[in-house]
Amino acid sequence: MPTTIRDISKETGLSLATISKYLNGGNVLPENREKIAMAVEKLHYEVNEIARSLVTKKTRTIGVVVYSVECAFNGSFIHYVNNILSEKGYGLLICDSSNDEKKEAANIKFLLNKKVDGMIVTPVSNNTEFLKPAKTAEVPVVLVDRALKSSEFDCVKIDNRTTAMDAVNLLIKNNHQKIAIICSAKEYTGIERYKGYRDAMSQAGLSVPASYQKKGIHAMEYGYESMKQLLKLKDRPTAVFMTNYELTLGAVMAVNESSEVNCPEHISMLGFDDLILAHVIQPRMYMVVQPVKEMGEKAVEQVLRRIAGNDDVSCEINMNAHLKRGNSIKMLA
After folding, report:
1. What pTM does this model have?
2. What is the pLDDT of residue 54?
3. In angstroms, rounded to a whole number, what is the distance separating the alpha carbons of residues 29 and 18?
4. How many CB atoms are closer than 10 A to CB 167?
5. If you ran DSSP here, which 8-state letter would residue 285 be given?
6. Contact 229, 216 (CB under 8 A)
7. What are the helix (H) ranges across 132-265?
8. DSSP sequence for 91-132
9. Which of 69, 81, 148, 311 could form a disulfide with 296 if both were Cys (CB 3.0 to 4.6 A apart)?
10. What is the chain's percent helix, strand, coil content, to nearest 5?
11. Which residues pair with 213 in a beta bridge?
């Protein structure tokens, strides 16, 4: 027979109410806490999570919805979030939206049916329509990496526009004037980073030919094809800014395949996210680095604050990105 709290009561001499309070995270006198903890270990007591959730109306589970688990950023982010939640006694349910808005909406409903206490979402959509069921159910949602048009949900991100502008300004400071961009034109981060690129070029009085603007999808294949097209231009750019990890990876592959062009001698490159790529290729890439671990910590902190009812007004939390130096940018004469 499995151990019950009545067995723990007999072992410790404490009331069922005190033991129940301890098991549900309530405040118990230190000496009683120690007695119960020893009894739990001795009797191999395991909490019946289903029964506890019926009493507390909490499952101690957080749902995480990402636009794609194939994205390296999301993989790292989930890793950090899982570690932090585990330390705090929470479980994790992961849903992959596969860059599909319909799947994303279905994932939100799925998690609500699983009675998660809160959600952390890196969205596909650019509006909040898919989050209405969570809003109605009063389940807290924290957005990460990608903001939405409405400010009714908390969001943890970097200032994508300013960060991209600073990155392009580095190329300009190295005397590059013919600067191309490979970016996604669909989601928030790609759109904002493209704006930052245009800001930097405009402020420097530099023209941006249509052929230098590769605006497509967030995919390695698009980065690869876009770079191949740039390398074939008669008036080839001297530098290229790639706005996410997958695009950077594809662009690097295209340059490595070229027998006529190498980096940084013929073309300078600046990418996004300090993941595996920057550590295994030569030349070492200049990379914009997002604080993925800190973003995960802040997202967990915020969703738990919401669950505890400690915040009323939604907030946008901007984290600081930084530039990791490499040798993929050449100073032009």
Report:
1. 0.80
2. 47
3. 9
4. 24
5. P
6. no
7. 132-137, 160-173, 188-203, 220-232, 245-257
8. EEEEEE-TT-HHHHHHHHHHHHHTT-SEEEE--S-SSSGGGH
9. 81
10. 45, 15, 35
11. 181
Which range, of 101-105, 210-214, 258-262, averages the lowest pLDDT? 258-262
Say what the pLDDT of residue 57 is. Answer: 60
Alpha carbons 313 and 315: distance in angstroms, whole number: 6
pLDDT tens per residue, range 56-111? 567 899 999 999 998 888 999 999 999 999 988 899 999 999 999 999 999 999 99
Count of residues in the chain: 333
Amino acid, single-letter form, for residue 99: N
pLDDT at 33 > cutoff 90: no
Secondary structure letter of residue 275 according to DSSP: S
Do residues 172 and 179 touch, judged by C-beta distance below 8 A? yes
Res 49: pLDDT: 55
Q: Mention every residue, 6+ apart, whose C-beta is less than 8 A from residue 164.
A: 192, 193, 194, 195, 196, 197, 200, 241, 243, 288
Residue 237 corresponds to which amino acid?
P
pLDDT (0 to 100) of residue 316: 87
| The pLDDT of residue 35 | 86
CA distances 175 to 141, 161, 198, 239, 246, Å, are: 44, 22, 17, 10, 27
